[in-house]
Amino acid sequence: MRLYHKHYGSGKPVIILHGLFGLSDNWVTFAKKLAEKGCEVSIPDQRNHGHSPHSDVFNYLALTDDLMEFIEEHNIEDPVILGHSMGGKVAMRFSLENPEIISKLIVVDISMRQYTNRHFHKKIIQAMRAVDFGKASKLSDVEEQLEEYIPQKRIRMFIMKNLYYRDNRQTLDWRINFEGICDNMDEMFDKIEIDSKFDKPSLFIRGGNSDYVSDDDIATIKQHFTKSEIQTIEGASHWVQAEKPKEFNELVFQFLED
């Protein structure tokens, strides 16, 4: 699948993989800072997200294959792969299957284990499904409807990145393949079961207020990612990079320089 992507800078190649309900736009500010430090940054929209194609097939096997095609299509050699949440699981699976292809791995607030269906994702789905676009002629109308389900403005803004105007800018709609993702939501909580190791430098960043990477996950992470370090950013939830950008940037920049 040919993925839409954004591209910044030149130098050390870095590929950034967004999370579920995200898109490349979420990482533009960070990518530009990386570019200033001598990196060539690519941010693809993963399938069913952003401007990339839609598909009824939506699982980690397909997402990992998409990443391989992306690397081959753009002739990217020895990239660093950074993935958040769903993107982090794609990055982990890809590195375990193809350790010779990448140089370093950065995983943001996700572990290898299976997750139960998360209440937060259910709330996002409920909110997006409830939006009546017949009563939404502008973005603020959509936000007002979302607020009933999602009181946090930051999360509403995150979701609204998926809006676009269709029919010659007459009607708002979701650009994301909403139903395709919902139909395959259970696949997004799968455990990574690959009996191999990644022996290159790996950085795992978790939010101190998040339960996505628990202390119990650390032994499994270190078993499969033998040169991994795990850093906790206190006061951050699952969206570490958005809530604590200074601390997040410092960790990533230092890891890339080592």
The major pleated sheet works out as: 7 strands, mixed
Task: Give me the secondary-structure category.
Answer: alpha/beta
CATH level-4 homologous superfamily of the largest domain: Alpha/Beta hydrolase fold, catalytic domain
The oligomeric state is single chain
Number of structural domains:
2
CATH fold node name of the largest domain: Rossmann fold
- Portion of residues in beta strands equals 15-25%
State Rg.
18 Å
Describe this structure in words.
The chain has 258 residues and is α/β, with parallel strands linked by helices. The chain contains 10 helices and 9 strands. The strands form 2 sheets. Strands 1-3-2-4-5-8-9 form a 7-stranded mixed β-sheet, with helices on both faces. A two-stranded antiparallel ribbon has the order 6-7.
What structural keywords apply?
single chain; 258 residues; alpha/beta; Rossmann fold; 2 domains; seven-stranded mixed beta sheet; two-stranded antiparallel sheet; 36% helix; globular
Question: Brief overview, please?
Answer:
The chain has 258 residues and is an alpha/beta fold.
Task: Provide the fold topology.
Layout: E1 5-8, E2 12-17, H1 28-36, E3 39-44, H2 60-73, E4 80-84, H3 86-97, E5 104-108, H4 119-130, H5 139-147, H6 153-160, E6 163-166, E7 171-174, H7 178-183, E8 198-207, H8 218-224, E9 225-233, H9 240-243, H10 245-257
Parallel strand pairs: 2-3, 2-4, 4-5, 5-8, 8-9
Antiparallel strand pairs: 1-3, 6-7
